[in-house]
Amino acid sequence: MRLVRGLGAGQLEGLKMSEGLGIFFHYRYEDAKRTKRLLIDLCSNELVTVSAAISGDTLAGYVTIVPAEESGRWGALNEALKELYPDIDRPILFELGSIEIGKRWRGMGLGTRLLEHTFGGAFDGAIVFLRELSWHWDTRETGLSIYKYRNMLFKMFECVGFEYFYTDEKEVAYSGENMFMARIGKDVPGEISFRFCKSLRNKRPGGWGWS
Predict the structure, then answer these.
(1) Cα separation, 26 vs 52, whole angstroms
(2) pLDDT: is 25 or 37 the higher one?
(3) Are strands 93-101 and 127-132 parallel, antiparallel or unpaired?
(4) Measured between alpha carbons, how far is 147 from 145 in angstroms, rounded to an integer?
(5) Any idea which architecture 2-199 has in CATH?
(6) CA 194 from chain center: how many Å?
(7) Which residues contact 15 (CB under 8 A, 6 or more apart)?
(8) Fewer CB within a 10 Å sphere, N or C end of the chain?
(9) What is the pLDDT of residue 203?
């Protein structure tokens, strides 16, 4: 198994797609080429990092790290940080957009290995967050309950420095199974960490003692 961080569009072009890749198209093998096109587009963006696990001529799994979307609170925070730190020419806030492992290689620790390869010596000056939404999880294939699947994901991301954070963002807060995690790089200034943590809640907590 070969692990690659920073996969190029040309490298991906020649690879076959493993069965079980394509969550956004409900894992239909005939639509795997649509997933491949999306990944090729991402590989062509210099601000995006695509890491891949490659077995022979087959894409066995991948991870995508993308800049925080421009709309909403994360994009607004990135813009605010640009003004605060004008000498930084790259976004500070990134999102782990997706991680998928083909069916043949699941349960072998490949997801953890791929994450370790992705973050080893990289993203130390950035904050990378992830939004794990339960309706994206392939619980039927694993046979795990929704909370056991959530715990499995939590432990995997924790291995590479992600921590759980509470947020009132609607998409995450919609369901109790969902979770928000973030990895704050060791070189991120304290002021940026503070602003990020402050941005996780748009509303102040209610109840006794709060006005």
Answers:
(1) 20
(2) 37
(3) parallel
(4) 5
(5) 3-Layer(aba) Sandwich (3.40)
(6) 21
(7) 36, 52, 54, 57, 58, 59
(8) C
(9) 64
